[in-house]
Amino acid sequence: MSEIAPAAKPAFSQEALKKVETIYNRYPADKRQSALLPVLDLAQREFGGWLSRASMDYVAELMGLAPIRVYEVATFYTMYNLKPVGKHHVQVCTNISCWLCGSDGIGEAVKQRLEIEYGQTTEDGNFTLSEVECLGACVNAPMFQINDDYYENLTPETAVKIIDELANKA
């Protein structure tokens, strides 16, 4: 009978640990817990684009926090992915400004082009589509975010063009 080795416990690289120290230095020593948001962001980038429970536990241990404090933050903000996402994470803002300016059409156009619904990933793993609350770009609504980039003043046609350009990149 073969045994399956347990998954390795997540741990930051030395480079990431240096970034954690840089993040910590932005806050008073007695307020290090305030660094949780950027440290979770770093963990997400370091551990494959999403936060597993093990990676959240690692962050909690690293920061000396109760794991529940980390879970509360990670589950509240849509910027943290709690399951694996595709190479291109398309987040369509559907809050009031974007909705009034046509985000429903943007979402439908992207769904149709990718043949997935919100919360799904394409079969090839290239795209994950999410509906999100305000991304803070109301002045240029409607918009979506793909990974770290904002695309604003969208129409259904420009949204699909952006998706097609990303799909055609190797």
UniProtKB/TrEMBL annotation:
Keywords: 2Fe-2S, Iron, Iron-sulfur, Metal-binding, NAD, Translocase
UniProt entry tagged with the keyword Acyltransferase: no
Any one cellular-component term (Gene Ontology): catalytic complex
Annotated InterPro entries: NuoE-like, NuoE_dom, NuoE_N, Thioredoxin-like_sf
Record-level GO BP terms: inorganic cation transmembrane transport
Cofactor(s) needed: [2Fe-2S] cluster
Gene3D superfamilies named in the record: Glutaredoxin, NADH-quinone oxidoreductase subunit E
Binding site for [2Fe-2S] cluster: 93, 98, 134, 138
Stored PROSITE patterns: COMPLEX1_24K
GO molecular function: 2 iron, 2 sulfur cluster binding; active transmembrane transporter activity; inorganic cation transmembrane transporter activity; metal ion binding; monoatomic cation transmembrane transporter activity; NADH dehydrogenase activity
A Pfam entry, by short name: 2Fe-2S_thioredx
Catalytic activity: a quinone + NADH + 5 H(+)(in) = a quinol + NAD(+) + 4 H(+)(out)
Cofactor note: Binds 1 [2Fe-2S] cluster.
Entry similarity comment: Belongs to the complex I 24 kDa subunit family.
NCBIfam families cross-referenced by the UniProt entry: nuoE_fam (TIGR01958), PRK07539.1-2 (NF005722), PRK07539.1-5 (NF005725)
Protein name per the record: NADH dehydrogenase subunit E
Phylogenetic classification of the source organism: Bacteria, Pseudomonadati, Pseudomonadota, Magnetococcia, Magnetococcales
